[in-house]
Specification:
By secondary structure, chain A is an alpha/beta fold. Chain A has helices at residues 37-51, 68-78, 94-108, 127-135, 188-194, 235-245, and strands spanning 2-6, 9-11, 33-35, 57-64, 82-87, 112-116, 138-149, 152-159, 162-168, 172-176, 199-203, 215-221, 230-232. The chains are: A alpha/beta, B alpha/beta. Bound molecules: flavin-adenine dinucleotide and adenosine monophosphate.
């Protein structure tokens, strides 16, 4: 079985983004970019399945600017076998990304696609579910445990009340939650090896997908700020302030 | 225009997030119908929804497939009803984060995720980058699919008496099946509706310490219990306690952060709380930048003291 892992190039999770003063977006110049953390978890899971002999090939795919090839290289350095870069200018929305991924799936015929549950830039949490819809496949979002059962899957999901376990008929779509695994770091030899692994270069137009946004971004603004309050000297002062000043007790 | 609001309920009980999402749905300006999909107890939840102010009609769909949160049959049901509606709205709970994008793609529209404000019937505010920026987006889709961040909307009260209709279950695509669940039973308020939340971080060091220090304080305050990702990852707290960008987003009257440093991803889930208290031994911890009241102290001393002081107050 082949596994496809879509990986997105996003602002590194450690960066505190700044909104541009003209409201046109967030400052992306000279900002550190990385693979979306949930996608690292997705790559790791695919690699573990391959190492366990359940999967034969791990293919990473990214849709975005030419620099998204760096994100693919990161996946290859972790151990993925090959990459596909689909160049798309501007900000491709989850629906467009899902349509491109559907075309990639139709060509590659994986038995499983593992995505992140959410890209930490747009915080959309949509792409995997949309891809499942377009393919007519089963889905399990927010996975914290994954077992392969032939061509089917048993998945434990993190839900609001606790954990849920479902069985999926393969081929299937799974999106990762934080507790699924702890991704490995790429070793230096593997980073060197990754340079020789193949990346297929494509364009969004090759798949005939219309990238015109459905959502027009009118403006991007700073959230309402919150001022730091006071430091209290001890528990007694804290209780008295909460009672008399804040009125929350 | 007419809006379909999908209700969140637990068996026969309607959940508070439904009332909050109803407020957002009503702001779209049209009539609001509510869909309650579930097992045999969905009818009772439907009766409760019929009493909410402003609801014009309630649709109840009963089916084993809807009782267990499976995305494929629920999406098929919503899509089967979609032609009568201009907007489909649901609270951004794990159930609807799972199902609504599937609905959106089947209708070939972009979902607007986790709106925090209705600017106009087609224009919404939503947080991006863990709430470090707010985007105003205008949807060009004829049919809107929207999830609501309920922590920013007040709950709609009762006062309605809408008719309740039964709708047919849609064909189940039969792609997935329910095997089991582990749902913690607790008498404490749920995080998304609690007025007070006490959260612990990595500094708690163990599950036992959560039980020994955080939970008694929470119980004195009648509070819900939360945790940072670090505490959940380490196994000190269950996953459904996680507050943050990728956990639950809460906005209680009082949020007490204990032994939590205040990473961006944690702040994303609690910085809209009315009053924030932080207890941390590092005076430079970023949590103090958002706390109304900061106490620089060792939690293992301060928390029992606080619990005791509240006891003396008659809490
Ligand atoms: C993709 C992604 C998503 C994430 N999502 C979330 C999320 O939803 N929610 C979330 O919380 N995090 C999330 N994180 C993790 C986040 O970045 C931080 O790592 C995490 O919030 C840190 O948890 P913490 O504050 O408990 O631990 P730490 O940062 O280790 O802080 C522990 C604090 O305890 C204090 N302390 C230690 N001992 C004591 C003592 N005896 N008394 C008092 N204080 C003490 C220390 O001074 C320190 O400030 C996410 C990260 C990523 C990459
Ligand atoms: N441009 C992209 N290229 C590759 N994968 C993507 C892209 N956008 C989203 N994804 C995948 O979809 C997941 C969810 O993204 P989102 O729906 O934007 O929150 C991510 O974690 C990725 O696995």
């Amino acid at each position: 079985m082949k596994v496809l892992v879509p990986v997105k190039r996003v602002v590194d999770f450690n960066v505190k983004v700044r909104v541009k003063s003209d409201g046109s977006g967030v400052e992306l110049a000279n900002v550190k970019m990385s693979m979306n953390p949930f996608d690292e978890i997705a790559v790791e899971e695919a690699l573990r399945l391959r190492e366990a002999g359940k999967v034969t090939e791990v293919v990473v795919v990214s849709i975005g600017p030419a620099q998204a090839s760096e994100t693919i290289r990161t996946g290859l350095a972790m151990g993925a076998d090959r990459g596909i870069l689909v160049k798309a200018e501007g900000n491709a929305e989850p629906l467009a990304v899902a349509k491109i991924l559907k075309a990639v799936v139709d060509a590659e015929k994986p038995g499983l696609v593992i995505l992140g549950k959410q890209a930490i830039d747009d915080d959309s949490n949509q792409t995997g579910q949309m891809l499942a819809a377009l393919l007519g496949w089963s889905q399990a979002t927010f996975a914290s445990k994954l077992e392969v059962e032939g061509s089917d899957f048993k998945v434990t999901r993190e839900v609001d009340g606790g954990l849920q376990t479902v069985k999926l008929k393969g081929p299937a779509i799974i999106t990762t939650d934080l507790r699924l695994n702890e991704p490995r770091y790429a070793s230096l030899p593997n980073i060197m090896k990754a340079k020789k692994k193949p990346i297929d270069d494509k364009n969004a137009a090759d798949y005939g997908v219309d990238l015109t946004p459905h959502l027009e971004i009118l403006k991007t603004s700073e959230p309402a700020g919150r001022k730091a309050g006071v430091k209290v000297k001890d528990v007694a002062e804290l209780v008295s302030k909460l009672k008399t000043e804040a009125g929350v007790l | 225009m007419t809006t379909l609001l999908i209700a969140e309920h637990e068996h026969e009980k309607l959940k508070d997030v439904t009332n909050k999402a109803l407020t957002a749905a009503s702001q779209l300006g049209g009539d609001v119908h509510v869909l309650v999909a579930g097992g045999q107890d969905a009818k009772a939840a439907g009766e409760a929804a019929a009493k909410l102010a402003g609801v014009k009609k309630v649709l109840v769909a009963e089916g084993e497939a809807y009782a267990h949160d499976l995305a494929e049959p629920l999406a098929a049901l919503i899509v089967s009803l979609a032609s009568s509606y201009d907007a489909i709205v649901a609270p951004a709970t794990s159930r609807f984060k799972n199902v609504m994008p599937r609905v959106a793609a089947l209708l070939d529209v972009m979902q607007v995720s986790e709106i925090i404000k209705v600017v106009a019937p087609d224009t919404f505010e939503r947080p991006i980058y863990a709430g470090n920026a707010i985007q105003t987006v205008k949807s060009k889709d004829a049919k809107k699919v929207i999830t609501v961040r309920t922590s920013t909307f007040a709950a709609t009260g009762e006062g309605g008496s809408a008719p309740v209709e039964t709708v047919a279950a849609a064909a189940d695509p039969g792609l997935s099946s329910f095997l089991g669940e582990e749902v913690a039973k607790s008498d404490r308020p749920e995080l998304t509706s609690a007025k007070i939340i006490v959260s612990g971080g990595r500094a708690m060091q163990s599950r036992e310490n959560f039980a020994k220090y955080i939970e008694p304080l929470a119980d004195k305050l009648g509070a819900g219990v939360g945790a940072s990702r670090a505490a959940v990852d380490a196994g000190y707290a269950p996953n459904d306690w996680q507050v943050g960008q990728t956990g639950k987003v809460v906005a209680p009257e009082l949020y007490v952060a204990i032994g939590i440093s205040g990473a961006i991803q944690h702040l994303a889930g609690m910085k809209d709380s009315k009053v924030i208290v932080a207890i941390n031994k590092d005076e430079d911890a970023p949590i103090f930048q958002v706390a109304d009241y900061g106490l620089v102290a060792d939690l293992y001393q301060a928390v029992p003291e606080l619990t005791e002081a509240l006891g003396k107050l008659g809490k």
